[in-house]
Design goal:
globular; ten-stranded mixed beta sheet; 30% strand; alpha+beta; homodimer; Alpha-Beta Plaits; 2 domains
């Protein structure tokens, strides 16, 4: 079976999320439809490293394209990329890179060793004119240094039940957070968050809680106590999806290294 | 007469440009309509430092709002900003800052001592999914270092006839370019261009020509010869408006310094 890894960029604004759902268009569905002409007109299956929610964007999602009915001799990584981008029009989804996968055990979800997210807050009185669907607009001044310091207490292995969506289907609430930096660049507050994997809504729930520390609604040392309570009600609200970007996936061997 | 300076951000995509025109909505018209409730329901006049073209964006345009029919006692800079932003909805135009102007001779167009533009090229094979109306997408690899070096020959005072739109109404083709830097950040090529003032389409015509140097269609030392020919036909095509941002205007005394 011919298999390609795909590195994807997309605007999640008008999608129900990565995964196919009955209630609207998904990234997965658009990609599978665009790939049908490459697979003898049969929609193939495409699996992703991270199943992003409705409104969440990606600049470095990684997916696996299986082409059981394709003629492998005619398919190079470059023709896959260009043909998919042609058929993906006019949807705001593009294949940045494609790479032939020869290891039969490689899978974007299970082979990923790190996932990297960015979250962008626009922190100023005026609403965004250029980035309306790309940021969380927070009018109240936020102390980004305080938010960064507080976020460091989430690093390492913890029970993240307090930051987990009630609908989360993961077996364990234990996750290991490897990086959480928050910096200010003029009116933008940019968070970079890395872990092997995340619980459902974990990034947005952590950001929503850190915002309450940034505007002094919560004490700066609240996070260890919130973790210890192991209750979703102990943490802050879920930050909106508009500011969230799945920016990169790491694998032990980078499929796109050429 | 009550007068306020406004610092503006806007998405130029769906506008005919700054200036009022019969063939579609303009930034000026939207602002003047939004300001009518502050001026006893009469649309006031708003003049800008730079009359951006259709599709061109701004992150730091400066305009002057005249309110001949307003009650000045009720108007602070903050109420002007917030009221305009309220009435500007849902247009992608916002007032970042407002400042009371007391100097009767201050005018955004004539008092400006420098205008700063940014131009962003997305240089990669795949079309943009997140920045479609915010960049010029160029698939051919461009040598940004070569483009930067070539751009330096445009600095200083020159006759810019070769880079001037045929419709340009300026009295003189002489302009003094103070800064032209071009840097690459991953797949983005970012140009920063500063001058006291520019001819019509000057930035886009310079970028369109530098692109031909970047992809080796033109020799790296072409620009002095193109300047010397004083003919629009000697230079390259006009770069699209999507990548252009009016980013800042300088004044001898910053009206927004508080």
């Amino acid at each position: 079976m011919t298999r390609f890894a795909l590195k994807l960029e997309y605007d999640g604004t008008h999608f129900v999320g990565w995964q196919r759902q009955a209630n609207g268009p998904s990234i997965q569905q658009c990609l599978e439809q665009a790939a049908a002409p490459l697979n003898n007109q049969t929609e193939p299956t495409i699996a992703a490293a991270g199943r992003t929610d409705a409104g969440v964007h990606a600049t470095g999602q990684v997916a696996l394209l299986l082409l059981p009915d394709a003629n492998p001799a005619r398919l190079t990584a470059r023709t896959i990329r260009d043909a998919l981008n042609y058929h993906l029009q006019p949807h705001p989804i593009v294949v940045l890179e494609a790479a032939l996968i020869t290891d039969p055990d490689w899978h974007p979800r299970f082979s990923a060793i790190a996932r990297h997210y960015r979250y962008i807050i626009l922190n100023r009185p005026a609403r965004p004119a250029l980035e309306a669907t790309r940021v969380w607009h927070v009018k109240t001044p936020l102390d980004a240094t305080l938010m960064h310091q507080a976020a460091q207490s989430l690093l390492g292995k913890h029970d993240f039940t307090s930051f987990r969506a009630t609908a989360c289907q993961a077996n364990s609430p234990l996750r290991t957070l490897d990086r959480f930096t928050i910096t200010r660049e003029d009116n933008h507050i940019i968070a970079t968050i890395s872990a092997r994997s995340f619980l459902h809504h974990q990034v947005r729930n952590m950001i929503g809680t850190l915002k309450l520390i940034g505007d002094h609604s919560l004490p700066a040392d609240s996070l260890p106590k919130i973790l210890a309570q192991k209750s979703r009600a102990a943490a802050g609200p879920t930050a909106p999806p508009t500011g969230l970007f799945l920016s990169a996936i790491d694998f032990r061997a980078d499929p796109f290294a050429s």
